[in-house]
Design brief:
Bound molecules: thymidine-5'-diphosphate
Number of helices: 11
Strand order of the largest sheet: 3-2-1-4-5-7-6
Low-confidence stretches: none
Order of helices and strands: HEEHEHEHEHHEEHHEHEEEHHE
Number of strands: 12
Structural class: alpha/beta
Largest sheet: 7 strands, mixed
Radius of gyration: 21 Å
Distance between the termini: 30 Å
Mean pLDDT: 97
Shape: globular
Strand content: 15-25%
Length: 335
C-alpha cells in the first residue's frame, strides 16, 4: 500500500455499479446531515456517491488517493489507525457510518482497527463492511482468495465473536456476489439496534455445514489438492495439442494459483491487463510477462485463463469476439 499501489477499484465497471447501488442502500437510512467515513477508500469510487454528505476517506496508497482527490472526494493519504485520527478527535468529529470494502481482511492489527473505529463511531452509528466470505471460498474451492494482502477470510461466526469482544453486536448480514462471493456485515454498539433474522439464519447454516470446525479446513485442503491436479492436467492436455494459453487480468489472486500449481511461462505466455502500473512487469514468483490489454486481439491466444473470474459477467459480455474467433476460457473455478 505505497505510492505505486496498482489496484484501482474503478478498473471494473461492475464494481462501479455495485458501489453505486451499495451507496443508495446506505443513503436510504441516512439523514441529510449524516457523516460517513471510509477505510481504504481507494480511488473514491464509493465515496463519490456521498459528495453531498460530510465524508472522509482514509487511503494510504498515494496512486489511488490522488485519483480520489481529482474526483473531489475528501481523501486522507494515511493508514486508518489510532495514530492517524488525532485531527478528528481534536475537532470532536464522530460518524454515523464507518464503511470498508475488501479492506478489513487486509488489516493485520484488528485490535487497533476496532479501537480506532470505536473512537469515531457515534453512539447509534453503524460499521458496515463487505469482505470475501469463507463459505463461498469453501464452496467454490477458490483458494486464490488466500494471498499476501488477505490476512483473514471471515465467516459470520468469526465476525459475531469479534463483535462481542468489543461490546459490539452483529445486527445484519447480506450475501453479495462480488469478488466471487462476499458478505456484507452491519455492526453496531450492543443493544442499540434490532438484530435481523439473517444473522441467526446464516449462523445456523454455518454451524450445520460444520464451517467452525477443523474438519472443514482439512476438507478444503483436500479439495484444493484435487482442484490443482485437475487444472494441471487440463493445461498439459491443451499444451500437448500445441495450443497457446495467455492469462486474462493480472489479479492478486492469480499469484496464488500460478505459484501453488507451479504454472509459469512453460504454460502461459503472457498475462493481459488494463492497469498501466502493471504493464511491463512480471507476475510475482513465476515471472510471466504482463502486457497491455490493448494488444489482446492482435495476439489472440487459443485459450485465455480467466484470472479475474470474479468479474466473469462483465468480461464475457465484453469479449464475445474472442469466442466468435474460436477462443476458449479456462479457470480453476467453475465459470
Ligand atoms: P480483481 O479480481 O478485482 O483483483 P484482485 O485479485 O487483484 O483483487 O481484478 C483486478 C485486476 O484485473 C486489475 O489488474 C485489472 C484487471 N482487469 C482487466 O485487465 N480487465 C478487466 O476487464 C477487469 C474487470 C479487470
Amino acid at each position: 500500500f505505497n505510492k505505486n499501489y496498482p489496484f484501482y477499484t474503478s478498473s471494473s465497471k461492475s464494481m462501479i455499479l455495485h458501489f453505486k447501488k451499495y451507496a443508495k442502500w446506505i443513503k436510504k437510512k441516512l439523514k441529510k446531515n449524516a457523516s460517513i467515513l471510509e477505510i481504504g477508500s481507494n480511488d473514491g469510487t464509493f465515496l463519490q456517491n456521498f459528495k453531498n454528505y460530510f465524508h472522509i476517506g482514509f487511503e494510504p496508497s498515494k496512486s489511488v488517493h490522488d485519483v480520489a482527490i481529482k474526483r473531489n472526494v475528501k481523501s486522507i493519504n494515511k493508514f486508518f489507525n489510532l495514530q492517524n485520527i488525532n485531527f478528528l478527535i481534536k475537532k470532536k468529529i464522530k460518524f454515523d457510518v464507518i464503511v470498508g470494502s475488501n479492506v478489513i481482511c487486509h488489516i493485520p492489527n484488528q485490535n487497533n482497527l476496532i479501537k480506532t473505529m470505536l473512537k469515531l463511531l457515534k453512539e447509534n452509528g453503524k460499521i458496515i463492511f463487505e469482505e470475501p466470505y469463507l463459505g463461498s471460498m469453501y464452496k467454490k474451492i477458490s483458494y486464490d482468495q488466500i494471498y499476501d494482502e488477505h490476512i483473514f477470510i471471515f465467516s459470520v461466526n468469526a465476525i459475531n465473536k469479534i463483535s462481542k469482544l468489543f461490546d459490539l453486536e452483529l445486527i445484519d448480514v447480506l450475501e453479495q456476489n462480488t469478488h466471487g462471493g462476499s458478505m456484507r456485515y452491519v455492526v453496531g454498539r450492543k443493544n442499540v439496534r434490532t438484530v435481523s433474522k439473517n444473522v441467526e439464519n446464516i449462523l445456523k447454516r454455518e454451524k450445520n455445514l460444520g464451517q467452525d470446525t477443523l474438519e472443514s479446513c482439512i476438507k478444503f485442503k483436500l479439495n484444493c489438492e484435487i482442484s490443482k491436479k485437475k487444472l494441471v492436467e487440463k493445461i498439459q492436455s491443451i499444451k500437448s495439442r500445441g495450443k497457446k494459453i495467455a492469462g486474462y487480468a493480472a489479479t492478486s489472486k492469480s499469484t496464488t494459483v500460478l505459484n501453488y500449481c507451479d504454472i509459469g511461462t512453460n504454460y502461459i505466455d503472457c498475462i493481459f491487463d488494463t492497469t498501466k502500473e502493471k504493464i511491463g512487469k512480471y507476475s510475482p514468483g513465476k515471472h510471466i510477462p504482463i502486457i497491455s490489454y490493448d494488444s489482446f486481439y492482435n495476439q489472440l491466444p487459443d485459450y485465455a485463463y480467466l484470472f479475474a473470474w470474479n468479474h466473469k459477467e462483465e468480461i464475457f459480455k465484453k469479449e464475445k469476439e474472442f469466442i466468435n474467433k474460436g477462443g476458449r476460457w479456462i479457470s480453476h473455478v467453475d465459470i
